[in-house]
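note to self — DONT lose this again. spent like an hour looking for the file last time. sequence + predicted structure for the chain T wanted, 393 res
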Amino acid sequence: MAVAAEDARERVTVHFWSVVQAVVAAVVAWTVAGGLVQDHDPFFAPIAAVIALNTSGGERGANAVRLLTGVVFGIISGEVAIALTGGGGYGALALGVGLAMTAALAIGVQRIVIGQAAASAILTVVFAVNFGGGHAGLGRLTDALIGAGVALVFSQLLFPARLVAILRRIEADALTEMAHMLDVSGRALRRDDESSSQEMVTWLGDLSRPMAELSRARENSRHTVRLSTIRWGDPAPVLAEDEVIDRLILLGESCLFLARTTAAMSEDERHELAPVVSRMASVLYTLADDLSSRRARQEAVEGALRSARRFDAQDTGGDPVTTATHLAVEMVATDIMVFAGIRFEEAEEALREDEADLEVPHPPGVPWLPWLPWRPPVDRYRHRWYSWRRRRR
């Protein structure tokens, strides 16, 4: 019960600001639509604003465009159905919905567009039947334009998506899942029974979800940089985070390889390996706690390095499974260090040396307004400073 309550609190905390934005946008859209259109109840304007904003930060602008596309399809189809049937009724409703969904499917749009097209056709026909007006479609289109416009102002200008923060949240979820998997694997190695092995297999399957989410987030971020106001500023932080996701995907594959090889080891070797796997899980938990913290990354690098060195000192005895497990531990440690910010060559060299002082660089900051030029190169300021001094002389 306590865990469920904590999960609920965390979900509300993460999305609370999005809820506030949607509430304010709904009120603004209602006010604007009510002031611009006379003798009209602008119920759809706030609905359109909320629907357009009710998606991940990087997709809100595209969602507004999809909403408008569906509304236009639906209104046109509804009006055509009314004209062909000579008025409203069951036939007009069926024809309007069928035309709207068929037209949306024909051009290969997203499911949200198909749903909006059908809903718009239904409302156009229903309003024509119940109120006898021929302007229901036009009023709904006006509402949709106002609601989507408010959503675009909120999502692109006032509160643009903080893609770096969104990506790091997804990275933290993936790291937590990897840590859970290694933690379960470590406990399974200690118990060495059938139930724990089955539990480990379950965690192996669960890891596919965050890994797929990582790939999807990377593609969405690139799409957002191209089509949103972020392209007006400095896309370097987002592109750098995309590279970090590539490293994290490799880390996930290394963790899978480690968990798989441990299952094939003998009982004595499994018991010896259990502390190493558990320490790697602890390192991943440390990373997931705060990806914006240099201290957390430094602790993770040092912990991974200590664990890999200690295990590498053992003799493999020429056994292929043991050799593969040693390689898996080294791969996990290397990928953790590279993900934390250490160059690959430095990480490999540190594993070969008994003494190595690795300094993790500060992780890039998270820009608050991505559509403004963010953190320009220092050389630009230096050039201006030197030019000013020359003029003063």
